[in-house]
Design a protein that fits this description.
single chain; alpha+beta; four-stranded antiparallel β-sheet; 12 strands
Length: 393
């Protein structure tokens, strides 16, 4: 069983090291994280076209929402893959790649897709493009998955008719046409599946639970390990009352009309739906594999764009910050973040104070005031530097 993958996208100003060199800054980040908690590599981010400060603040908010929605779409596609592959962890893991690569390899070699998301476009245009892509992907995968689920439900119902007990299975090959009263204007035949433990009660009471039931008309048609199927004759005008009374006693009425050639029709229908289910299973699996790949790619591009926008808002212009990707694990990610906080919380200025032991602690009131002045909201995971997590099953 594969373990969840955990990554941290991080950005800090190059000024965290005396040389102000980005490579040295990345080494400083690695030293802070500690190799026992994760490995750091550089993350190349293009310089996008920047608008006004107000626009950047709005775009940061939009990207935060898009990050959440992209995460949700990828998770739903992952759930669909798990369902289609019946929980086979190995097959599910093999189906999760990005651009025909394992996720880790894709991230280690990540480069902004300049062909698809041209850097000469404005940030607003790129965000709009990513939003439309993730929405379209969600709709396409959901539509195909719902189609497959509907067909699978239909197939299950047809299979139950062939293999279930007498309360659910098809009666086409069980009830002979001679047993049914079809030509009478007043009398009809009811078919009732009675649980084995209730047979004595049924035979003792069926004639009296509603008016005008033909006495001693109950005839055993067939039995299995759970039910006995009986036919009962009664007057049509009291049929609904009789059937309701049966349901109240947990005797199950079976709706059945004899049809010439019905058995052959059922076999053909089962064969047709089995073929359709197999076809849709393959189509759905291919779409989910492609969808997971595309969804992850979109999500990662959204996070990279978030890192860029937030870095400009935090560190200002000219753009001089080091961006990195930390590969860690869900267990070690918290330790890595704690180490980063200890090393770089001084970047928060008044937003962070010191406890009695000299350790940096968050001053929530100062952070709230600073964030409000910047036009943003205060998140519980606010850090003095730019940090966005990516965790994938």
């Amino acid at each position: 069983m594969s373990q969840p993958s955990s990554y941290l996208f991080v950005s800090l100003p190059s000024s965290i090291v005396p040389s102000s060199h980005k490579d040295d800054a990345l080494q400083s980040i690695q030293n802070a994280v500690d190799s026992s908690n994760g490995t750091v590599q550089g993350l190349s981010i293009p310089e996008f076209k920047i608008g006004t400060l107000d626009a950047l603040v709005q775009q940061a908010d939009e990207l935060g929402k898009l990050d959440n929605s992209s995460s949700g779409v990828v998770a739903k596609i992952g759930d669909a893959l798990n369902n289609i592959l019946e929980g086979d962890k190995r097959k599910v893991a093999e189906s999760k790649g990005v651009d025909d690569k394992p996720l880790d390899q894709y991230l280690r070699s990540f480069a902004w897709n300049k062909v698809k998301y041209r850097t000469e476009k404005t940030l607003a245009e790129l965000i709009d493009m990513l939003q439309k892509e993730i929405n379209s992907l969600d709709n396409d995968v959901r539509s195909k998955y719902n189609q497959y689920n509907s067909t699978r439900t239909n197939l299950t119902a047809l299979q139950r008719k062939q293999t279930g007990n007498l309360s659910t299975k098809s009666l086409v090959t069980i009830v002979p046409p001679s047993l049914l009263i079809n030509e009478s204007e007043y009398i009809e035949t009811h078919l009732i599946a009675v649980p084995n433990q209730n047979v004595k009660e049924f035979l003792r009471n069926y004639e009296t639970i509603s008016p005008m039931i033909v006495p001693r008309s109950a005839t055993e048609v067939q039995k299995d390990d759970e039910f006995v199927l009986y036919s009962v004759a009664g007057f049509k005008k009291h049929g609904p009352e009789f059937l309701n009374k049966c349901r109240e006693r947990k005797w199950i009425p079976r709706d059945f009309k004899f049809k010439q050639g019905g058995a052959e029709e059922e076999k053909e229908e089962l064969k047709r739906v089995e073929g359709e289910e197999r076809k849709l299973w393959g189509e759905c699996l291919r779409m989910c594999r492609t969808g997971w790949s595309d969804g992850m790619s979109i999500w990662i591009h959204v996070i990279v764009l978030r890192v860029f926008v937030e870095s400009v808002l935090r560190y200002g212009l000219p753009m001089d910050f080091a961006t990195g990707l930390i590969k860690t694990s869900p267990k070690q990610a918290k330790k890595a973040k704690t180490n980063l906080d200890s090393a770089f919380n001084y970047l928060g200025g008044n937003a962070f104070g010191r406890d009695k032991k000299g350790r940096a602690v968050k001053d929530d009131q100062s952070v709230a005031q600073d964030m409000q002045a910047a036009g943003g909201g205060l998140g519980e995971d606010y850090t003095a530097y730019v940090l966005y997590p990516l965790e994938v099953e």
